[in-house]
Fold this sequence. Notes:
This protein is an alpha/beta fold. Helices cover 20% and strands 20% of the residues. The chain has 4 helices and 5 strands.
Amino acid sequence: MAAQPRLDSRPRRPQDPLRRPIPRLTPTTTINQSPRPHTQKIGQSPAYTYADGKIVRSDQVLGGLDLGPGKPEHIFAQTGRLPAFAGGNADVDIEMLACAGFALLVNHDDAEREFAYTKAAEKSLATAEQLGWTVVSMKNDWTTVFKNDGAA
């Protein structure tokens, strides 16, 4: 007997072949333990050299990461897809955030607990409001910015 089609009233979005499923985070997932392997993350990577039998990290950047309009192209060149999630904090992130399925903009507006640098983010904040991105304020949304554990 043939399987019956699944009937439900929810509208379905057409599948975008450039987007991969968003990973499910588990209670054991932490900031330093991602469900995706390091080969599926994109960003700047340090260059290394081999000298005297040792791998030495250099102060150069391997491959580089384009700023501004080049970010979506760089991401697509590395993955073959546009990002399901992107996070940024400045005007150079607008294009990357605009092409993501979910965009998160961090507003560095807390001069008391960290250096506030909203001057490089005016356009991104305006674009976030216009396009409905999630904006997180360091002043209003963070309980702790830098943990004071007494260590000097």
